[in-house]
Structures are given as C-alpha cells and as structure tokens.
Design brief:
The protein is of the alpha+beta class. Helix content is about 25%, strand content about 25%. Strand 11 (about 255-260) and strand 12 form a beta hairpin. The longest helix has about 35 residues, at about 35-70. The protein is flat and about 85 Å long. Bound molecules: copper (II) ion (CU).
C-alpha cells in the first residue's frame, strides 16, 4: 500500500515537473514537491486514493450519459417504458456511495490527526563501545499516559559518527533519517515499555564508535503496514518541536517572531516588481522566515486585523491567522531551499500581495542568522562556534546534513 501511494506521489511529482519545485509555475499541473513527511502523505492520499476514485466516478457517469444518449434517444427508443422504482438499483446507489465515502474517510482520519497534533518524539544518542548491548531510553514524557507503550513507538537507528555525509536527496525529499533504521525483534529486543526506562538490548553489540540513536514517542507519521502484514512500515517518530515561529498576518504582510531566541521579530513585505524578477514577482518578499532543515518547527499564527491564512504547499500547511486567537501547526522540512506560499484567505484588496517565503537552511547557517537578527535587535549572540557543533548533535540534525 505504501509502495503504491509512494508511486502515485511520484506520478504527481512528474506531473508537477521539476523545473521549479518550490513554488507553482505557469503551465504545470499536479502539486509542488512534498518536502515534509505530512506533505508526502497528503500527496500520496490525493494521488493514490482521491484521484483514482473521482476519476472512476467521472468516467462511470460519462459512460452512463453516453449510453442513455445513444440507446434511449427518441429515435432509437420511440416508446419508453413507464415503470418507476427498482429496489435493487436504489439499494446499490445508496450503498456503493457509502462504501466509497468510508474508503475515503478511514485513511484520512490518521492523516488529519497527525497534521493536527504537535509531535512529541524524544531522542537519546549513545556512542557504542563495541561491547555494550544494553541501551536505555528515558520514557519520561510529561504526562504518564503519553509514555511509549508499544514497540512501534520506539525507533532505533545505527549511525556511524564518522560516516561521509550522504548525498542530498535532489529528486525528492525523502525522510531525513539519522542512519539505518533497525528492526525490533530481529536486531534488538525491547523491555520496559510503559515504564520510566526502556531497555533496548542488541543481539550483537554495535561496533565501537557507532551512534545508537533512539527515538520514542506517539507522533508516528507515515504509513504503517496494511493490516500489519502488507507493505513496508514507513512510519517515523517525529521529534518534538525545537523551535516556535509566530506568524502574524496584517494588511498586507507578515510579521515573524522567534520567541525561543530572544523574541526578535521582523516584518516580511512583498517586493515590488522592479525589485525582483518577473518570475518571482508576487512570491518574493524582503525578509524570509528562516528555519533549520530536519527539525520540527511549531508555527503559531494570529492576525492584527482581519483573517489571513498562512499557507505553504511544499509542507502541506494552510492555517488561518485569526485576530485575537492563536492557531498552531507544525512542519519538518526535509530539504534545504527557499519555499514560497501565499496568504490563502480572501483578506481584502491586497490579498494577492502578501506572499510567504521560507528559507530552510543548515543548522550552522540558521544559528549564524539568529546571531545576526539578535545583533539587529541589540541582543548578544546566542550561539558560538563550539555550541554550533553541540546543538547539531543534540537537536538530532540529520546525520547526512549538508
Ligand atoms: Cu491576507
């Protein structure tokens, strides 16, 4: 099932074309590239479930219409029969749509849930010494009922600390994983699920210098095996947000605040036509929102005047910015680059003039940017050279990071 959905998402990506994947361009159909785990699922759902169903229904109705036109027009069929009601047909045309709606609804519930709920995953990294087989994951979630209680909620990776960086995924935004995912039951066994400490016991001790990365949490995103049997289990535990960015809409632009880094904020306005290229006019802004790649970002939105909507198609995000209220959502961008979106709520005469631009950069670049923003706000630097390295490891930036 997962393979099928991934294949259908690839079909969509081909339709979209790869010329400029980070924003919609004229003459292309399909969706922009999915660069977040949720977006990949949304695209898989669209191309693998919705599109085949609506295409099938459209062709069926078209076929019926043609059949009626050809077979039952007044020339071919001058004296129509006069019966009405047919129990079998009525049961079918009530029952089949119910089944179709169920086929759409059931897979969408999990997706809606993972879009809505902020991930809570935690990560522990240990360096193997070549002899130890037992590793411990602290199951200390804030609420006891959110503890890791099932082995699927614990993912164990082996990453070589000195491995050469992986080539960046240029074609698609594949899951940014911190190494090779091991299989529970085969490569290791787990004890202590639901208790404050979970013990992961390897059948053979990982080689000295290898990093054992353990991720636990209920924020499983991606498709599980169908009925627990078919397909590849492609779920991943998404880590809790490391950064919150507040986006405030106003007529006509956005204000971005970074409360975790001294609450500096800046305004992001559209660039006039003479300050950018014709291509990027209506997309480009003077100040981009900046986030690090591979980390979970919480986005909160609000507004100063009317309802706006912060939308970023590559991450499959569209969330209203409502005056006097805070909405929240999340994304995890898996590929560096600049992504473009637009306000997606009709908010007034210059609705079309408040685009959104997000730069996804490496952790060191992000920290340098934060220091610069803090300097402009009269604050001292938050990150030094030494801290950059530490933070990258602690935050679980991808091992293959660029
Ligand atoms: Cu708006």
């Amino acid at each position: 099932m997962k393979k099928y959905l991934a294949a259908m998402a690839a079909v969509g990506a081909t339709l979209a074309g790869d010329a400029v994947a980070q924003r919609p361009v004229d003459g292309h159909i399909g969706m922009v590239e999915a660069c977040a785990p949720i977006a990949a699922e949304v695209h898989g759902f669209h191309y693998g479930v919705l599109l085949p169903i609506i295409s099938g229904i459209s062709f069926l109705v078209l076929g019926l219409l043609l059949w009626v036109i050809v077979r039952y027009n007044s020339k071919v069929n001058p004296t129509p029969r006069k019966f009405s009601h047919n129990t079998m047909v009525e049961v079918l045309w009530t029952g089949i749509p119910i089944l179709i709606l169920l086929a759409i609804a059931l897979p969408s519930f999990e997706l809606l849930y993972s879009e809505d709920v902020i991930p809570d995953g935690k990560q522990t990294v240990a360096t193997a010494d070549g002899a130890t087989t037992d590793f411990v994951f602290q199951n200390n979630f804030q609420e006891e009922r959110r503890r890791v209680t099932r082995s699927e909620q614990l993912h164990v990776f082996l990453a070589s600390a000195n491995a050469a960086p992986q080539a960046p995924a240029s074609e698609s935004c594949a899951h940014n994983r911190p190494g090779k995912l091991l299989r529970a039951g085969t490569d290791y066994t787990v004890t202590g699920l639901g208790k404050p400490e979970i013990h992961v016991k390897f059948s053979t001790p990982p080689a000295a210098g290898e990093e054992v990365v353990m991720r636990g949490g209920r924020s499983l995103v991606g498709k599980g095996k169908l009925f627990g049997i078919f397909g590849k289990d492609d779920r991943e535990v998404v880590l809790a947000p490391t950064i919150t960015v507040k986006a405030t809409g106003f007529q006509w632009g956005w204000i971005y605040s970074y409360p975790d880094f001294g609450d500096f904020e800046f305004t992001s306005n559209i660039l006039p036509a003479d300050k950018t290229t014709p291509d990027l006019y209506h997309w480009e802004v003077d100040n981009h929102m900046v986030v690090p790649v591979g980390e979970t970002i919480r986005v909160t939105t609000t507004s100063r005047d009317v309802i706006h909507s912060w939308a970023m198609p590559n991450f499959a995000i569209k969330i209203d910015a409502v005056p006097g209220r805070i909405n929240e959502t999340w994304f995890k961008a898996e590929k560096e680059g600049t992504y473009y979106g637009q306000c997606s709520e009709l908010c007034g005469e210059k609705h079309a003039f408040m685009p959104i631009a997000v730069d996804v950069v490496s952790r060191p670049e992000f920290e340098a940017w934060v220091n610069k923003q803090r300097a402009m706000a009269g604050l001292s630097p938050m990150f030094g050279a030494k801290k950059v390295k530490l933070a990258a490891g602690v935050q679980g930036a991808p091992a293959g990071g660029k």
